[in-house]
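Would you mind writing out the residues of a protein together with its fold in token form for me to study?
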Amino acid sequence: MNKFTKEFKERAVKLKEQGVPSGEIFENEGINIKNKQKDYTSKLISRWKSKKQQEKILDSKEVLLLKKIKKEEDKKRIEYLEAQVAYLKAEKDFLVKLPKKKKN
């Protein structure tokens, strides 16, 4: 069960990075943490920060993979177009060599 919104998690991570105590972040949002463990909020924000960093790493890996795929697709397209040009040149050379019909 996820009781914290994505927006709150992102805001909490930013505030923690700015030096705001983690308990204060929760209290300012009206979240009761009195019955929680001593470092509950700190560990929670650290987990959110770690997850966010992992997502950034995955995003960068996805970008690299997409670039690699695009590069391979571009290479295949270039090979196809080069083959098509070679075929058309050969066809042109063949047609040029055909005897011309005389008009009556």
Remarks:
- DSSP finds three helices and no strands in the chain.
- Residues 24 and 47 are 17 Å apart (CA to CA).
- The chain has one domain: 6-97.
- Residues 6-97 form one domain.
